[in-house]
Task: inverse folding
């Protein structure tokens, strides 16, 4: 992904210090590229990187040998994503807390533009998640399903109560609204964002804050991932009493089996048509994969609502 070099003018003074928290679970195959992209950040004088690792691969050895400048915390036992986020927050020292998954690659001006947005007074800042131009059909389908709400073509705007990605927060947000739910293996960020929305906290979406996400290349992993996400969403909707699925059993099933998948399709087409016209062709070329993904998510949603806990 080509990115225009950031300049010092992007950073109004005084610039808040930042801590980038990299979440790395069995990330030996991706951690080098992720951290190398942080070494290439431009327009930022100083920031720290905290890697929160878990799993039994060689990630700790790679960090020690190739990236001695990062702060490393973690454990061999599985670490839920919420617990990993909280561990990173407690370890970090920056005024701005930035989250980054170990399989993602930010643009060279990713951090500079983010800090500029925070310096404008925004407590929460979100950016666009970009699909690699060389990605295969399965990765492109997964990207369309998960990140269609905030593509690069959406205008820069302040939003609240919507699914956000590529996020950072001023530290005071956690002091005021608490940390992430450590019991959740997935969806801890969704629950936290719901909490902020109920409190009236808005976020700035800036499409120039770009993050490259490679996605899945295996059909089996793609289907499992969609079902996994759907299952966790169903569980969270039940536990947090999301009104969209309230009501008697038959009405709820109608909403889950019909309104949920149709609603996802309609929103996908509308958003792509409005904000990502260059990807309209993908809607038709990838239609079978998109329908399979939505069907898997719907299956997971129903099972999750009725008590299924998706495996990690």
Result:
């Amino acid at each position: 992904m080509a990115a225009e070099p950031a300049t010092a003018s992007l950073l109004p003074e005084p610039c808040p210090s930042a801590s980038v928290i990299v979440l790395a679970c069995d990330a030996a195959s991706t951690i080098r590229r992720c951290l190398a992209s942080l070494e290439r950040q431009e327009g930022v004088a100083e920031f720290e990187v905290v890697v929160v690792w878990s799993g039994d691969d060689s990630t700790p050895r790679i960090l020690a040998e190739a990236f001695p400048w990062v702060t490393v915390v973690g454990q061999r036992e599985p670490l839920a994503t919420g617990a990993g986020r909280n561990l990173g927050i407690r370890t970090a020292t920056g005024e701005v807390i930035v989250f980054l998954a170990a399989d993602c690659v930010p643009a060279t001006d990713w951090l500079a533009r983010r800090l500029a947005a925070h310096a404008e007074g925004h407590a929460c800042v979100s950016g666009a998640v970009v699909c690699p131009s060389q990605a295969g059909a399965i990765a492109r389908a997964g990207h369309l399903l998960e990140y269609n709400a905030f593509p690069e073509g959406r205008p820069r705007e302040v939003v609240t109560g919507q699914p956000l990605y590529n996020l950072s927060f001023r530290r005071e947000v956690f002091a005021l609204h608490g940390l992430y739910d450590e019991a959740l293996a997935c969806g801890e960020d969704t629950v936290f964002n719901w909490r902020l929305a109920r409190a009236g906290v808005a976020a700035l979406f800036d499409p120039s804050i770009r993050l490259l996400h490679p996605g899945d290349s295996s059909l089996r992993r793609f289907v499992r991932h969609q079902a996994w996400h759907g299952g966790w969403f169903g569980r969270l909707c039940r536990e947090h009493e999301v009104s969209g699925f309230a009501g008697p059993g038959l009405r709820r099933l109608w909403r889950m089996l019909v309104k949920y998948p149709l609603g996802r399709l309609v929103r996908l087409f509308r958003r792509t048509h409005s904000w990502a016209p260059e990807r309209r062709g993908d809607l038709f070329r990838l239609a079978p994969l998109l329908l399979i993904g939505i069907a898997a998510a719907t299956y997971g949603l129903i099972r999750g609502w009725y008590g299924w806990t998706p495996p990690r």
